[in-house]
Structures are given as structure tokens and as C-alpha cells.
Write a structure and sequence with these properties.
This protein has about 190 residues and is an alpha/beta fold. It contains two helices and 20 strands.
């Protein structure tokens, strides 16, 4: 009975987001905590067996794509105005922020003018912030409370340690940790089970 009820709830939540998400394949898992927002010119693509607990917000022609068997943990968010790509089998833990833009412009005069505009005004949008695509490879493990900044590429099979701030690319098969994140180990390999 419990399994059946979960399936019904998941179907209802998926139906609720049907107009703003492109679902490819089957068995997508969306939860009460799932929040998805996008503007009409943006695109969100979820492949088979994705699990979304957190927030995906996509604006100004941006595109978010999550590969098969990937997950976005509770309290985590993807904030996109350019492009965020998450590879297959990638696990993003709790309270992670992936943001491909600065949220606000760097120019002090623009920020001053922005503060004088009302809430919801276009001047307060990500549209005026610098942005660059983020690419997270396949089978990546992103620990809790990580922040991944604009323009970063994380290679396949890498691990990002908890509470890290990733400002530069991470090669494949590496472990990165710290603020700012640095490579602490390379050539990690999967054990044979």
C-alpha cells in the first residue's frame, strides 16, 4: 500500500511539472520537496531514473540537463541562466548550490541602481549577471554543502569533498576539497567488486 501511494504521489508531482520539464525515458522520481521553475525560453531535461529532491531554476534561455540515474539531493539547488549539464550516475548530496551565474552584476553603480528598483524588476534579474556553463561529468559524487561556480567542468568519476567551493575545473578521476577547492588526489579508481 505504501509503495502504491508513493507511486501515485510521484505521478501527480510529475504531472504538475509536465509543462516545464522534458521527461526522457521513464521512472523519474519527484518529491514533495521538489521545486522546478523556468521561464518560457529556457529548457529543463530529465533523463530516465533521475531523482530530484531540491530546486531547479532555469531562466533567460538557459538549459539544465540531468543524465540517467542522476540525483539532486534535498535542499540542493541548480540556478541556471546559461547551461548546467549533469552526467549519468552523478549524485549531488544535500544543500549543494550549483550556479552558472553571479546572481548580480559586479559593477558597483549598477548594483546601487538595482537596489533602488522594486522587487521583481527586470534590473534585479540574473539577466545582467556574468554567466558561464557548468559541466558535471558522469559518476561524479558531490558532497554536502558544496558550491559549484560558473564556468566549472568536473570530470567523470571525480569526488568533491563536503563544504568545498569549486571555482576551477576538476579533472576526471580526482578528489577535490577545500575553499577554494584544490585537487587532493588523482587517478582514483573504482574497486572491483
Amino acid at each position: 500500500m505504501k509503495k502504491f501511494l508513493k507511486k501515485i504521489i510521484n505521478s501527480f508531482i510529475k504531472w504538475h511539472y509536465r509543462e516545464c520539464v522534458t521527461f526522457i525515458g521513464e521512472n523519474h522520481k519527484l518529491y514533495y520537496s521538489t521545486k522546478i521553475h523556468k521561464t518560457q525560453d529556457s529548457e529543463i531535461v530529465l533523463h530516465s531514473n533521475t531523482r530530484i529532491h531540491g530546486l531547479i531554476s532555469c531562466r533567460f534561455g538557459g538549459k539544465v540537463e540531468m543524465g540517467p540515474w542522476s540525483q539532486l539531493g534535498p535542499g540542493s539547488k541548480i540556478l541556471c541562466s546559461n547551461s548546467v549539464s549533469v552526467g549519468a550516475y552523478t549524485a549531488i548530496a544535500q544543500n549543494v548550490t550549483i550556479c552558472d551565474n553571479n546572481n548580480h552584476p559586479v559593477d558597483p553603480e549598477f548594483r546601487r541602481k538595482m537596489q533602488l528598483t522594486p522587487e521583481g524588476h527586470e534590473m534585479r534579474s540574473w539577466h545582467y549577471a556574468e554567466n558561464k556553463p557548468i559541466v558535471i561529468g558522469e559518476n561524479v559524487w558531490v558532497g554536502e554543502n558544496v558550491r559549484i561556480c560558473k564556468g566549472v567542468t568536473i570530470g567523470d568519476n571525480s569526488v568533491i569533498g563536503a563544504c568545498s567551493v569549486v571555482t576551477k575545473d576538476v579533472p576526471s578521476n580526482a578528489i577535490a576539497a577545500g575553499n577554494p577547492a584544490r585537487i587532493v588526489k588523482t587517478d582514483i579508481h573504482l574497486r572491483k567488486y
